[in-house]
Amino acid sequence: MTPQNNKQIVPKIKVCKQCQLAKPVTDFSPVNVINNGVKYYYFCALCKPCNAQRKRTYRNSIGGKEQVKITDHKKYLKHTYNLTLEQEQYMLIAQDNKCAICYSNITATNKAIDHNHKTKIVRGILCNRCNWGIGQFDESPARMLSAIAYLKKEQYSE
Question: How far apart are CA 42 and CA 46, in angstroms?
């Protein structure tokens, strides 16, 4: 579907490419897309039951849910940071599985790959909290130093 005056024509019936049955469009998952700043959506080519079966078949063909998570994580690392899983693991070992800022233990649920958003260069692995903090300061060392000076004022000293 293409946007037409920022409005889309949404069909009421769609034919599934897998089972070839005509079904209501509500039986198909919507997919959101942003293209050249224009947001639009279309519906998946497979109906929800056929899509679920396709995912099950794929998951089973590569070794189950855990293997899918690893495969997806590998793709994410490569696409987002141009890193391999081995490079990420090496960085974690080099940091003793600790955040590069606060030294708290890094787990699968609190891990963030820290990178410069302008140069895309990976700096290290942080806990989510420290990564969020750097982001709140717009990665500006001057702002962070100003915050440190503020915290060191006499009324805030420990």
Answer: 12
> Do 51 and 43 contact (CB within 8 A), yes or no?
no
All structural domains of the chain, each given as residue ranges with its CATH number in brackets, are 13-56 (no CATH), 81-151 (3.40.1800.10)
Q: How far apart (Å, rounded) are the C-alpha atoms in residues 83 and 76?
A: 9
Span 82-118, pLDDT tens digits: 999 899 999 999 999 999 999 999 998 899 999 988 8
SS3 labels along 58-90: HHHHCCCHHHHHHHHHHHHHHHHHCCCHHHHHH
- What is the pLDDT, as a whole number, of residue 1? 46
Residue 5 has pLDDT above 70, yes or no: no
Prediction pTM value:
0.57
Q: How far apart are CA 69 and CA 80, in angstroms?
A: 16
**DSSP H helix total and E strand total for the chain:** 5, 6
Sign, CA torsion 104/105/108/114: positive
To 10 degrees, the CA torsion angle through 102, 105, 109, 113?
Answer: 50
